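Researcher: Next sequence.
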Amino acid sequence: MRLVGIVSGAALLLASMAPASAHPHVFAEARLDLTISADRTVQSLRHLWRFDELFSSTVLMEFDKNSDLTLDAKELDEVALTVHASLAEYNYFQLVTLNGNDVVMAPPPRLVVNYDNDQLVVLFETKPKDALPPSGKVSIGVYDPTFYTAIDFTDDDKIAVGSLPQGCGRSVVRPDPDTAIAQNQKSLTDAFFNDPTGTNLGKIFATRLKRSRFDCDVPNSC
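Model: Next structure:
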């Protein structure tokens, strides 16, 4: 799971600095709220990312044009626009699959950015382009395919599901890195560890909501 760095001068936030090796340089705590609509399809994914203070201070230096050591509304809008454009190439770090196949997500119309307690906070909402019923093997999470940014959930409650039909639950999967590597050894070549950009294999390490029919105990209840 990775975010990408800042290019000084151009201020291309979160999408352009190539990683030197397969480990993160930026860290963020995440929250993901998934809502189910009345027709029992996945309605939306609401993301909140709170970034580490070191990275946040770098953003402050890049976008604090009036040098008042804070980000005003206009400056926050500039950050939001830059992040929105930069993350489009990476599908906004979303992992959404159905029976192993990627689910196409509509890009968020806008991002909301705050600077709170010396930390950059990014919020946005996305929706599946087509109806996504919570049935079959659904997997939903967040990851950076280039491993530059580690975005993770501090506890399972940070991945929440609202409006679940009666009799349904949800399960959070936290892959063990050693086990994930062992199970995917044939795919994880030396090139992946030296520069994972574009391999898309980082998803095997992602904390995610994953379960057939979201653990529904009642047949056809989801």
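Model: The two ends are 29 Å apart (CA to CA). Confidence is low (pLDDT under 50) at residues 1-13, 15-21, 211-222.
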